[in-house]
Structures are given as C-alpha cells and as structure tokens.
Amino acid sequence: MSLRTPSVLAAFNPDKAAFPTIETVGKLLASDKIKKVVVLAGAGVSTASGIPDFRSPDTGLYANLAKYKLPYPEAIFEIGYFQSTPQPFFTLSKELYPGNFHPTLTHYFLRLLNEKGKLLRVFTQNIDTLDRLAGLPAERIVEAHGSFATSRCIKCGTEVDGEWMKEKCLKGEIARCAEERCKKRTGGKGGLVKPDIVFFGEGLPNRFFERLSDLKEADLLITMGTSLQVQPFASLIDRVPSSCPRLLINLERVGDIGSEDSSSFSSGGLSSYFPLRESGFDFDGLSLRDKSDKRPIRDVFFQGKTDEGALELAGICGWEEELREIWAREKKVFDEQKAAAGASSEGATQSEKTGTDGLSAAEKEADKVAKEVSRAVEQPKSKRTDATESQHQDATGEDLAEQVSKLSVSTSTSAEEPRKETSHDQAGKKAEDRKPSL
Ligand SMILES: [Zn+2]
C-alpha cells in the first residue's frame, strides 16, 4: 500500500512511506502552517489533578453519599432526582467544587497553545473549569457539558452570585433562589439553584452548538483523554475538513472507523444494520479501497496519558521547559494558598470535615501523580512515550468525569442543533439505551 499523508503532514514526515506519528504532528504544530488547533478534551486531561471518583470507596466520597441511598450513583446528576432530593448533589459539590484541584500539565499546554497563537478552541466535556484556572481565556473554551462557573435557579432561571453559590457548595448546603416572585411560586422556599452543569434530562449549552462551526476551520484536531462514547461530542471528530490531520492522545485507541459500534457513533442509514463504525479515526488506512488508493493517512494515535502527549508535543515544539516551569510555578502558588486557607479556617473547609479518608486521599493521589509527572519529565523521551505501564492508575477522575460526560447522553436528541442530521436521531436513541444501569 502506498501511504500518503495530507500535504501538510507529509512535509514533516521524513519517511513518506511510513504512517505519521506524534512527532510528525509535533513538527507540523511547530510550523507556521498551524494557527487554528481545535482540541477535544475529556476526563483524561483532568485525571492527574486528582479529582476524586465518588464511586470509589477509597476516596471516602462514596461513603459520604451512602446515607442518601442513591438508587444508582448517576442519579445524583439527574434533574428529576435533583428536584426531589437535592442534598446528595450539594454534598458532592463540596468535594468537586473548583478550587480544590490544580490544573494538569495538559491544561497548561492548552494555555501555551493559545499564547503561541495556535489555538482556535477547546471543546471540553469536563465541568471542573481547570482550563480556566490554568489561564486559558474563557472565550477559547466551550464547556460542552456546562461547568460550575455560573449557576441559576431551575424554577425561574435567575442567575445567582458566583461567590454566594461557591459558599453554598463548599458548605454542602442546598442553594435556594431568593427572588420574591420565585418564593411565592414555591410556597416560600424558593426554587433550587444549581450550577450550570448539564444534567441528565437537560440540553447542551447553546454555546456548544454556536461554536460547532469552528471545527470546519480547524487546521489540526487534537483529541485528548476521552473515550468518545458520548454523543454528540463524539461526532465532532468527523466535522473537521477531510484534509485536517487528527491526533488522538489517549490510554486506549478509540473512535476507529470499522471498529465495533458500541457507542452511538454510526452516521445513520445503513449503519443500523452494520454494527461497524462508518466514520471516525482511520489510523490504519482501512478506508483506502485498494493498494493503489492514494488517499492520505491523516490520523495519528499516541497511546498514553494526556500529560505525556502534551509533553511530547511541547518537546518537539521547543516549549517543554516553559511548560514545566509555568506548571511548577503555579502549582507552588496553589499549594501555598491552599495551605494558608486550611490554616485560617480550621474546621470550616471540607478537608477537615471529610476526615482522613476524604480529601486527604485525593491529595495523596494528586501528590503521587505530581511526582509521577516530574519523574516523567526527567525521563528521556523514548521512555516517556512508552506510556502503557501505568495505565491503570487513574480510575479516580476518569470515572466521575466519564459519568458527568454521560449526563448529556439522554439529551443528545433534544439538544440537536437546528440543522441537524438524521444520524443524530439514531445517535440519540442509541445513547438513550445506554442510560445509567448501575
Ligand atoms: Zn428562582
């Protein structure tokens, strides 16, 4: 088979007969050809920050929630359940509220991409706002599943003051709307106030649909730390131009064309009869019809944690030192502030209340990961790329964020953009089937 990469990639692939690699992509990224990178980010980019998984007995969060007898863990993010039983969500918010965690190297890599004039947009499935915290401007971010950044009353829609909501969340107290007219309608209590996180049963934010057009402008797509199991997010990889190189940085290879269609990846029509993906990444050139097919290979898979992929790219671009410095400097400030806050409000913060099994476990995890990262940074490149050894470390953030990712699942049909394609109806229905089953 005669392999060819798109002209932009080919220029940086010394061995024209070989598949492009992350190095090829890195060289392309470093060149002045790339100015509109679109990044699709999933739970994996935040894992190293130590965001706890509330299902894991190790974090203590599960134990905290046990007394609420959730029918299944995801119920905590269901709008119907929240309306009847809001306390579990606020108990969880206490642990998840942004500020407890420091952004990862990957988040700072995204910031650097922007500062180097390379970034068009980051679409993230995460609700942790760590990209904002790392200094990425809000206009560069599309929080596909919402975030804690803003909150409003679910009855009257009034947006509440961010600081007030933060206090409520950090105390684990149920937040209620103070609007008089809202109180009247709710027998004096006021409607429930909830962060603008997309719950099961809610639509995706307008901004997600408004910014879909960015994908058509992308000159490089980087997909990081996501299993691409959730629609409509998963379909975004097919919205970039056919000449746009696509890099996947993930622990597992996902989103392959021709792979079993376990998600709602199909593009409609015949796909319902053929359970294989018709679209998606084509790392192996499967879509080439025969040996003489000269169509280019433009998809690259880098197996590893997102921090490893980010370091790899930064290294090729000559930004590695800058990236390490900026992360270490800001981490130091974060740790100092956290220590100061802990000392000044003894007993008031969640870490004390949660006890030794709670946040302290998450902190230990974060420390562990931080050490791991600094070790990885120390290692020669060849070592770093061999990332599979510690693949199993990160159940913590992955699961929670994965669940949060699933939040939009049941809404993907109703939340369609105006010019929707029939394929999404399929996707929506299939996704519906995959609703929480624990
Ligand atoms: Zn209200």
TrEMBL record:
Residues 338-438 are annotated as: Disordered. Binds 1 zinc ion per subunit. It is found in: Mitochondrion. GO terms for molecular function: histone deacetylase activity, NAD-dependent; metal ion binding; NAD+ binding. Keywords: Metal-binding, NAD, Transferase, Zinc. Residues 362-392, 416-438 have a biased composition (Basic and acidic residues). InterPro entries: DHS-like_NAD/FAD-binding_dom (IPR029035), NAD-dep_sirtuin_deacylases (IPR050134), Sirtuin (IPR003000), Sirtuin_cat_small_dom_sf (IPR026591), Sirtuin_class_I (IPR017328), Ssirtuin_cat_dom (IPR026590). Residues 18-320 form the Deacetylase sirtuin-type domain. It comes from the Eukaryota. Pfam families: SIR2. One of its GO terms (cellular component) is mitochondrion. The keyword Transmembrane does not apply. NAD(+) binds at residues 43-47, 53-55, 125-128, 226-227, 250-252. The active site is at H145. Its main location: mitochondrion. Its cofactor is Zn(2+). Its EC number is 2.3.1.286. Residues 405-415 have a biased composition (Polar residues). Zn(2+) binds at C153, C156, C177, C182. Belongs to the sirtuin family. Class I subfamily. This is protein acetyllysine N-acetyltransferase. It comes from Pseudomicrostroma glucosiphilum.
